[in-house]
Amino acid sequence: MQWCRFRLMAALAAIFMFGAAVSGEARAQSMLSGDYVATNAPYTESERAGREVWFFATAFNDRFFTYAYPQRLGAAIDWYKVLAAEHQDQLFQGWGAIPDPDCCIPGEADCPAKSLEQTYGFPYCPGDADLLNHVGKEGYKDPACLFQDGPYNMSTPHGAKDQRQSACDLRFGTSTGALGLRKFPNPRFDAQKWKALNGSLASWDGYRKFLSNDPAKADSRMNRLFDGSIEPPFRIGMACGACHISYKPENPPADPNHPEWENIDGLVGNQYSRISQLLASGMEKHRLEWQLIGWARPGTVDTSALPMDTASNPGTMNAIINFMKRPLHDHEVLKWRKASTCASGADPAVCWCEPGKPGKCWERSLKSEKVAHVLKGGEDSIGYNEAIQRVYFNIGSCAEQCWMNHIPDLRAIDPAQRNYGQTPFDIGQCRRDCASFRAIEDRLDDVVAFFLTARPTDLYKARGMGSERDLEVALEREFGPGAVTQGRKVFAQSCARCHSSQKGPYDNVDFRAVDPADPTLRVDWLGNEEPTLASEVGTYNARALHSNHMESRVWAQYASNTLHQRTADPNLKELLKGNGRGYYRNISLLSVWAHAPFMHNNAVGPEICGKPTDPDYDLYTSPYVDAAGKALANPPACWPFDPSVEGRYRLYKASMEELLNPGSRVPKMFITQDDIIVDVAPELKIGDVTTGLTLKIPKGFPAVALNSLRYKDLMHDMVLLERHGDKLDGKYKGVLTPAQYADLKTGLKELRDRLLREREKAIVDITGDPNTFVQRYYSNVLDRVENKGHRFGEDLSPTDKKALIAFMATL
Amino acid sequence: MHALIRTAVVLSLAAAGLAACDRKPDLPFAPTDTSLRDPDNPTKVFYTDMARVEHDYPLSREQRLALTPENLKSFTQEEIDQIYGRLTAGPIPNGGHEGDLFFARGEDLKSRLDEIVGGIGGRIADTKVKTLENVGRHLWKGKMFYREEGVLRNFIEDPKSLDALIDNPEAMMKTEIARKGWLGMIDKQTTVYLMFPAKLYCGQSLLDGRRESVIVDYNYGDEIAGYQERPDSLAGRNGLRVRDEVRMVRPGFYLGRAYMNRIFLLNFTVYNEADAKAGEKAFRDGALIKEDCWAGEQVAQAGQN
Q: What percent of chain A has pLDDT over 70?
């Protein structure tokens, strides 16, 4: 540049010649709460450490939820609405979140914080004395820095020297008042600006409220949660516990709004959680992003909504129990494994040693291994450690360092643009570039150790009975003499083929057998975990079409080669399915009495709902429709959240009745409640140039039809058809038959003509008969009824059905 | 005659000097990633992951110094993207910066713009899109950064052609900037009009999430002093929803990207000659780059801190 500028100046000259203040010490969570510590008693040091990581570590996703989520993904969370101290009583009833027993409301007796201004409107929780002093300042020492590690395993290739990543990078922060949601002081916070915007340090209203009360104005759908210039006092992070912590089935709290630590279980899975609605809480329902995230029933979340596989598929948070006996399967697994050295000049994409830590290396290699099938279709298939670690990335940990560049931008409709579609997350790169990755990875054995501690919950114990026999007596009193014995026979004949991990024939199999070496451990997983075609079971197939783990997709490295080679279900109606394959694994029925409603999406059984005192927190939407897919005027009522033993049992029985009597099921289908307006390009006139395209999805349209629409492909194909027919030909060559391709082109042309004709209307309705072709070719999911299928047992006699319900309550 | 020849020689030398500055510098770029294939769309192109681009093809300080606002226009869009991905935000700019814009080169240009500006019917807007580009370049002269206030305003030298879009031309904010070109020899200052106020902060890049960029956000410009509904709302949340992001090529020189409703529209550069001169030596010598924004964690490669 220097030389360049010199010549430029010389040329021009030639022409012109002729022309923080820290107060107090941060403490690890294990020291912050005596009652929490008391619950550590049953655990070894490794299990205790793993439990603490699971409950509290966010691994640096506070930046994700504060910045990447609204700015890059275009979605927003109204954290104040969820977590404000004055709304704490809505936590469980509204959001299904589990209140933290250790937090208090500022101003209440014995609460160290005396005013909401001190806590920026949030509850006061252990560790906040230090944290609140660092709001708006640098220098916060995270409580994770004093985390007491589990014992170092010296027997791995990483050798005898403990070189684990600093525990600070686990990033615990302090509680928000809801378990699993953690807060961190935002060093960029400016108190004066906040007060000017919100009127008070305790208020977030200026930040979160919509900008107009006039529904006719677009500003009624906008707030400042998307204004990146505003820095809130806290950055909120999420631990895995946010979805997995819930109430112990055998020891639920007397008041679910005010639990004690003894009522809380970190692995049971929160079947009340409305985490999906929480993730959409800062948006107006007209936003496309709300539609993609917000449709889920309690206890389910679409974990692929953010990575965006364009298959709307909320699934349950599984109970993590009895993993010692979980079936394992042979897979060809390409993954990183610990190594002590790399050959000189080794490709770092194959072998890599952490700088400054001699002997701490990793090598990527292909081996045959026995692995569990994790996730609904068994997609996480390279080992427990990696499956656990992937959870962290899916909740935004290390998102900027290694995730965001691999997931699509919803609005990137130009295929030439980066972030148009998914690319594979690179585990090696993330290990290299994200300290929090390494902090979690170096402690995964501890988390697995914690997982292995969880056991099934027996109903007889939950009821305080002395033995299984006592329960059987009670069940036979309820269901008739011999019901349990008869139910076992029915189970062996009709269910065990899929729902037992023991070998048949099953006539003499003890499904409740325990391991002699550890009587708390069941021998039978009560599910063989084999992948089964969704079309064979008849279940709503959206989740089976999840494709994030397939080759070229974001989680490809977390799936085995065996999984990548799965063939697609030939019975699928979907012509193009985003690489989905159509399988569900046969799940476990351990403690099934405690985990209703049923199926991967909690759709078989009564709908459940909270009963918040504030109607603004009533998030229930009836999914019940008639045979034509129209919302029922008088749908069945939802069942209030009831984590008591008998509440779970009643829900189990009602769900079993629906399962075994599919004819009695009222179809469920989430349908749009209002017209959804999607602004593709805003309508504007600049001189004689008119811009704009707005798509309308009218009220009453199946939400899945919108949420599973590959709209980018649709828009791009219309451009290709018009301009580059050869490229369109190439795109579908070998993918569609000639007849299908001709049908596609006809449909595209008709749609384009129609859009051009109606363009002056600015809002174009993309639903209706003329566009069934859109669903045919551009929807990744064509199923609509969410509680269909799994009709096994419908032909049993009423007596046998009751017997089966009785027996399964003992599992 | 002799004088004419001498003038011609001088002009030729000047032209040669300028042409050399505009020549495309020799920079390393990653090829497309051919190891990936989308079974639903065999024609899909996979770009090399940005972390790998930066790791395997680092840019040196000398290579960054070779870049100019003019010669950046000679790169393909993917090359521009890869350059941007290897930059950091650097210090948030302050003061007036001369601006220039350029659209993506190549076949994709038309569909890229048409889909944004013209929606589905964009093909009929081809000529108008070109008009917009020309008008944009003619009108937009640069950006005035107010770092301490967290505000930015764009400056326009001659707003007459926008009269029809402006509610009250008399009320427009104005400022003096250094005059460019030979007229600067006569009068060092020129008056420009400040329009389209925007918020200025560190935030997420829509191209490369590994580290923050300097964000220029027009969505909430109505809260900034000097805002006029017409024309400023054109860029705002009820208009084109424009959001810019910039990263520092070298002191005084930033590469930017403009998005409409999160759809990429065009590249632009902003350049402050005084800052460029003042910071050049230290930059060349490898001085630490001041980072006002979060710079991510990828281990520093050549050319960065």
A: 92
